[in-house]
From TrEMBL:
It comes from Bradyrhizobium jicamae. InterPro entries: LysR-type_TF_proteobact-type, LysR_HTH_N, LysR_subst-bd, WH-like_DNA-bd_sf, WH_DNA-bd_sf. It comes from the Bacteria. Keywords: DNA-binding, Transcription, Transcription regulation. Belongs to the LysR transcriptional regulatory family. Pfam families: HTH_1 (PF00126), LysR_substrate (PF03466). Signal peptide: none annotated. Residues 4-61 form the HTH lysR-type domain. This is LysR family transcriptional regulator. NodD regulates the expression of the nodABCFE genes which encode other nodulation proteins. NodD is also a negative regulator of its own expression. Binds flavonoids as inducers.
């Protein structure tokens, strides 16, 4: 009985969309007579007239309009359930197109890709490395790793890891210029800037439970995070750098953390992919691989 009801509902939606019994019959491979009987059964069961028929046209009644909206959602949910099961049962295959931040992608995603490709031999990977905003849909990208928030309603996101930032400097710089004790002390120091989107990224601190942003100035600025780290190691000044970039330098004492009591994390590291009613197997298994590697705590933040 339930299967027959779903068949009748599907026939009704096709007739409503085609506005024709004959056209709907051709689309779904039934006779016009079978389509008509299906609609009559549905109307009799519901006790309402769903369609107005004339010799030239078919149109929805008010009740038909309301019922069609619910039927479309019902059939879409059924499709989604089927595709979700298929995505879990089908082996992932095909080309996975990635867009990765330059430094983070090279340091922390590439090593995972090596094991991932060994585990899934029917997947090939095409990876672009860029710190610019890439339109995933226009450029045909399956998934991007982004550091920060996204406001594109066409995209879905999955939280992967925190993005911790440390204010730091080389020991030689601090010996020459002194250790800043407060946020305001930074004004007397050379603060190295990371350029993103054509301007210096402000530094954010957490002071008395409030977020405080400051514009910084110094004699060196760059669009490349690894170059900024190298300049900091060379004693150019103070920088605010991600732990994923400098964890080894902090452990070895090559960089010294500053103002730890007011540090604030950056926006988290996320997987971003085009919105759809189901997740393709190749995207799903790649996200799982990243989560396995970085949860509950990413290796760069472990003691």
């Amino acid at each position: 009985m339930a299967i027959d009801r779903m068949k009748d509902i599907s026939v009704f939606v096709h007739v409503a969309e085609a506005k024709s019994f004959t056209a709907a019959a051709e689309r779904i491979g039934l006779s016009r007579s079978a389509v008509g009987k299906s609609i009559v059964r549905l109307e009799d069961r519901l006790g309402v007239r769903l369609l107005q028929r004339t010799t030239r046209s078919v149109s929805l009644t008010d009740e038909g309009v309301a019922f069609q909206e619910r039927c479309v959602r019902l059939l879409a949910d059924l499709d989604e359930a089927e595709m979700a099961m298929l995505s879990h049962s089908q082996a992932p295959r095909g080309r996975l197109r990635l867009d990765l931040p330059v430094s983070f992608g090279r340091l922390h995603v590439l090593p995972i890709l090596s094991d991932f490709m060994r585990k899934w031999p029917e997947i090939s990977v095409s990876a672009s490395f860029s710190d610019r905003y890439v339109d995933l849909i226009d450029e045909g990208v399956d998934i991007a790793i982004r550091i920060g928030d996204t406001e594109d309603s066409r995209l879905m996101t999955r939280l992967l890891a925190p993005h911790r930032l440390i204010t730091c400097a080389a020991p030689a710089y601090l010996e020459s210029h002194g250790m800043p004790r407060t946020i305001d002390d930074l004004a007397a120091h050379s603060c190295l800037a990371f350029i993103h989107g054509g301007r210096s990224v402000e530094w954010r601190f957490s002071e008395n439970t409030q977020i405080r942003s400051i514009a910084i100035s110094g004699r060196f600025a760059t669009t490349n995070a690894e170059a900024l780290r190298d300049a900091t190691l060379a004693g150019y000044g103070i920088a605010r750098l991600a732990t994923f970039l400098i964890s080894d330098d902090l452990r070895a004492g090559r960089l010294v953390p500053i103002l730890r009591h007011v540090d604030a994390d950056g926006a988290p590291i996320r997987a971003v992919y085009p919105s759809s009613r189901h997740l393709s197997p190749k995207v799903r298994v790649f996200i799982d691989e990243l989560l396995d590697a970085w949860r509950p705590e990413p290796p760069w933040d472990q003691p």
